Structures are given as structure tokens and as C-alpha cells.
Amino acid sequence: MAKQLKRSSDKMISGVIAGLADYMDIDHTLARILFAVFTFFTGWIGGLVCYLICLALMKD
What is the percent of the chain where pLDDT is above 90? Predict the structure, then answer.
């Protein structure tokens, strides 16, 4: 059975980053740190837009 991309119940805000971490089989904390670094280096807008798109598209 194929993996399904969905939000995680282990959430800090809405579970988007933890859901992506589950899908990619990486640690939730590492995924959150990588996302924070990505967001910082894209001037905040890049990370925010990606997060909101994932929030809208991912299942609960």
C-alpha cells in the first residue's frame, strides 16, 4: 500500500511539517529545523506560502 501524505497528530501548529516528516521518514524535530532554516533564508514569505499551500492540500 502506498504512503499517504496527511497532517500528523504530533503537531505544534497544524501538523503540516510533522506530516511531511512522517511521509519522508525523518525525525519531526529535524524537519521543523530544516523548515525554519528554509523560511529564514527565503525571507519568510517562501516558507509561509509553502506552509499555507500544504495546509490547504493535506488531509487531516
Answer: 67
